[in-house]
Amino acid sequence: MRTARVGLSAWIPLIWFFTFLVGPILYLVVLSLAKKGLYGGVDWVFQFSNYERVANQLYLEIFLRSFQMALLTTLFVLILGVPLAWSIATLKGAWKKICLFLVLAPFLMNLVVRVYSLKYLFSYDGPVQFLVRVFGFQLDQYQLSQNQYLVFWGMVTTYLPFAVFPLLVAFEKLNYDQIEACEDMGASSMMTLWKVILPQVRPALASGSLMVLVPSFGEFLIPDMLGGAKTMLAGNLITEQFLKNRDWPFGASLSVILILLLGLCAYFIHRWGRIRV
Amino acid sequence: MMILALIILTIPLFTMTVGSVFEGGQLTLKWFLEVIQDEEIQAAMGRSVVVAIVAGAVSTLLGLIMAFGIEKYSFRGRSLLQFLSMVAMLLPELVFALSLLSWFVILRFELSLLTVGIAHVTFSISFSALIIGSRMLQLDTALEDAAQDLGAGEVLVLRKVLLPQLSGAILSSFLICLILSFDDFLITFFVNGVGQDTLPIRLFTSTKMGFSPKYNALATMMVFVTSCVAFLLLSLGMRQSKKNHIR
User: Fold this and answer.
1) Class of domain A63-274 as given by CATH
2) pLDDT tens across B94-114, in order?
3) Pair B21, B28: CB distance under 8 Å
4) A51 to chain B nearest CA, in Å?
5) If you placed Cys at B181, which of A31, A219, A267, B52 could pair as Cys (CB 3.0 to 4.6 Å)?
């Protein structure tokens, strides 16, 4: 470690972060204490009424639903992602490359494109509804093209790669000697999984879940495009305050609550990932 | 389970691609032509590309500086910088977008492509620093020490010893930041100026109106571009890991 001239330039990113990250967040906190003006502006009267409003049952339910959705998404991502990461880690040669590519490409792909493709698949002009019509089933087209399951499918596929990559790295670094030793000593495979493999991949599991839970909690685009605006989630609620109701202070206070909740989740997951067994 | 995961991941994209080249059971490229000729799409494409290249370059540069600072030096504010970069990565996009929007509004900063670029750089720096920093940690410090022993100054070591070894990581970082910017919808949606739609926003607003094979074609083209970059990144990564293996 040295301290010198070139090292000083590290102040540049620091200043950047202060201007465009810390500043805005602090301002958001200040804004959350203000009051909505008569015509949609901001009245600088400091009070806590915005936070009192959040305690309304309606809003609490929305937050609870979003949290459920995020938890379920995380759970499903792990159910699908762990075997997927394991298979990719144990595959060899061309198949490994193909599978990696199939995960990496959607990961880098535009979110709108991905959600759009899913929407198209079930839209009236799309292949699924075409088949449904060919086979003569009677189904409401809107029920099929906009529902909670599609939102869920969109969420799971969107965040799956976020969990697969850290898990993949962990599985590839797995210490196989330990597993072998454990089996030689007569441990059952459940025992091996629990006592040897889990502790080794635990940090990856934690960071993977974190990478899924956090963005899926504040998701706005997926429920908006696939849910037919029927399922109000925290992300949509906050967006509406800013864009439709022009109640920025209330939107700000909802955002602050979102940050706090997610910070709490992040803290617990992080801690769980660090525990040594 | 793994097959199922891959299927639900890729099947919508696949059917969309197929849907974009068929018209009444016949293979056609008509929709692609229409996309290319659409002036609004052209303009949106141009804006997206410009912002992505500039944001990619700036965030890679800042990420490089940050990685140097964090990995090679100790200074006051080092752990603060690390913390902030973690915050930038973990902060929900929506909250970041809204806080930045209200920040720009209170500072009377006019919303334009510039604000979009600033936003993109802010959330890309951490990724860039992470990619470059992790490569930097793998480097053999003996080379650096040797150069210094032979009397090379700090800047010279940086230019002649470190940067050439980091070129692969710098390129990956640039590509990733490029994609992050090119793909971003949510943050752009909020901090963008009126009438300056980027490609994802254009696609989003058009799908509100209903479906057309034209948008399938547009989306397919975007899929194609991203797949190329993904492929490039993957082969870069494979080459790097092979090199490490030999060493």
Assistant:
1) mainly alpha
2) 888 888 988 888 888 888 888
3) yes
4) 17
5) B52
